[in-house]
Amino acid sequence: MRLLPWVGESGAPCYLSTDDPGSRMSLLADEVEADLLDSAQYVLTEARALLAETGVGTRELRFTGVRLAESLRDTLRIAESRGYRLAPALTSPEDEETTACAAAPGAGTSEA
After folding, report:
1. DSSP H helical segments within 1-112, as ranges?
2. What pTM, to 2 d.p., does this model score?
3. Residues annotated as region Disordered (predicted)?
4. Alpha carbons 4 and 17: distance in angstroms, whole number
């Protein structure tokens, strides 16, 4: 199952039930992922420019923060989807216990 880079009408994640990376839906998902990552890069570039200015108003900062949050949400969904697709290739049956420990909530995070 592939986690898709969009959600359903109710906000629930959408999954693709094919392992064929050349299927029409897989290719569409790849294209949407690329577009979302390009958009995130654009938002980040524009946000940096805005934050470098002095005298930026609350309205502009709020708008920028909302766009950054949207881009981060999309990018994290893409990272999660790609991680799921990498996991089977990187994991052998002997590594399952180690992988489960490494994937525990908070694993690899710092408190800094």
Report:
1. 24-52, 58-90, 96-102
2. 0.72
3. 88-112
4. 10
The answer to whether the CB of 41 falls within 8 A of the CB of 71 is no
Return d(Cα 3, Cα 22) in angstroms, integer: 16
Angle, alpha carbons 12-14-18 (nearest 5°): 160
The rounded distance, in Å, linking the Cα atoms of 82 and 3 is 8
Which two tokens mark 28?
């569409």
Polymer length in residues for the chain: 112
Per-residue pLDDT tens digits of the chain, which is 112 residues long: 889 999 999 999 999 987 788 999 999 999 999 999 999 999 999 999 999 999 999 999 999 999 999 999 999 999 999 998 887 777 655 544 433 333 333 434 343 3
